[in-house]
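Subject line: Sequence and fold of a protein, written as structure tokens
Area: Proteins and the way their chains fold up in space.
Start of record: The labelled sequence and token lines come straight after this line.
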Amino acid sequence: MWSRSYSIVTKEVSKEQMWKLFSDVNNWPVWDKGVAFAKLDGKFKKGNHFIFQPEGGPKLTLKIEEAVENKNFTDLTSFPLAKMYGEHLLEETKDGLKITTTMKLKGPLAFLWRKLVAQKIADALPNDMQEQIKAASKL
């Protein structure tokens, strides 16, 4: 298994603002330059699926594996012989809101999907999370 995490602590946004940003999947392309298309029909809840297309990439179907309002959610992308999980955690601390994203890959071809997809996502996390905070602060 391959795993990479990045955390940031901020006083610029609340967990409610971040949740509102994350759960509004259809507007992800508005604030995330790496997202060409995102579409969720129905509610942002465990068991639902959404269509996601990264810039320059194919459309993918992601499953919401876990969703606890204002706390955490996990999305799952299934690739041939590998599964990629994006875990997103919101924790209140004395220093502010701690936002953590962890990317995980499991399966026999995890090494290949790390090179093709996951490593780019992990490398972009520091910048992406700054952009998420900026966008959420306007909500």
About this structure: The two ends are 36 Å apart (CA to CA). The mean pLDDT is 95.
